[in-house]
Design a protein that fits this description.
single chain, 271 residues, alpha/beta, Rossmann fold, 8-stranded mixed beta sheet, two-stranded antiparallel ribbon, 34% helix
């Protein structure tokens, strides 16, 4: 584990751990409904309900094996569930169930990116087997990469919508690389981005030479080291810079965030 931490710091600099540490508080108990995407076949645990559900896919270091980070993707999914229940309570509606999509991302950044591809293949297989179940796919950070590659792998017809939260992919990738997969989805794809998200605006740039999609949204203009293209017709950038000022605050209950979350926008646009 110490070698992993050292490698991560060497890749992204000493800013990564402090950015995480300041947000590692007030996490609810992890959700029991989980889908393990680490193997060739998805493994379900807990109760996966029939009908509409929200499948939350965590990002880098979200497997719960990073010593300083006392949370996992299942804790993050629980935070989203709590925030949604508060939002739906104000609207006198019942919130869909949140299920955690778990994959082995607690490693070095280059290896985590490679593993995200495998997780997307396993997730696409699981989605194709769901029949008429309605699934809203929510990918946070590097989980956004898992979600976009899942669309490229032909997930079938059960995806109702896709939400990217602070997505750790290149801003031009939705203009060409992931455009066919996005366009193949019947439902909308929303990218919620914040210029105040230091992880995708600053640290992502260290390893990838530009801010991530989750910083300022898509960029199809092309240029040095970037490809031009066009946005899919069912794709929308949503600037949530005023509400979201930290990388893990997109979905946390507002009382535990620096300035708020964007859960209301998710409900308005998608759920």
């Amino acid at each position: 584990m110490q070698e992993r931490v050292a490698a991560t710091r060497a890749r992204f600099g000493d800013g990564l751990v402090p950015m995480l540490e300041e947000q590692l508080t007030d996490w609810p108990t992890e959700v029991e409904s989980q889908i393990d995407l680490t193997g060739e076949t998805a493994v379900e645990s807990g109760e996966i309900p029939d009908g509409e559900l929200i499948l939350y896919v965590h990002g880098f270091l979200g497997q719960g094996r990073f010593d300083v980070a006392k949370m996992s993707g299942a804790h993050q999914a629980a935070a989203l569930q709590e925030a949604l229940e508060l939002e739906y309570e104000s609207r006198t509606r019942k919130s869909p169930t949140v299920v955690a999509g778990m994959w082995d991302s607690s490693t070095t950044w280059p290896r985590a990116k490679r593993r995200s591809t495998h997780a997307s293949e396993t997730l696409a297989d699981w989605l194709r087997a769901q029949g008429q179940r309605s699934v809203h796919l929510v990918g946070h950070s590097l989980g956004g990469r898992v979600s976009l590659e899942t669309l490229d792998n032909g997930p079938g017809s059960c995806i109702e919508s896709v939400a990217l939260l602070g997505a750790a992919v290149d801003p031009d990738s939705v203009c060409h690389q992931y455009r066919p997969g996005i366009e193949a989805v019947d439902g909308p794809v929303f990218n919620y981005h914040s210029e105040n998200d230091g992880m995708v605006c600053r640290l992502y740039r260290v390893g990838e030479f530009s801010a991530g999609l989750g910083c300022r949204g898509s960029d199809c203009r092309g240029g040095l080291l970037r490809s031009s293209g066009r946005l899919p017709s069912n794709y929308t950038d949503v600037d949530v810079s005023e509400q979201v000022t930290r990388h893990l605050d997109y979905y946390k209950p507002a009382e535990y965030t620096a300035s708020g979350n964007c859960v209301g926008e998710l409900v308005d646009n998608q759920f």
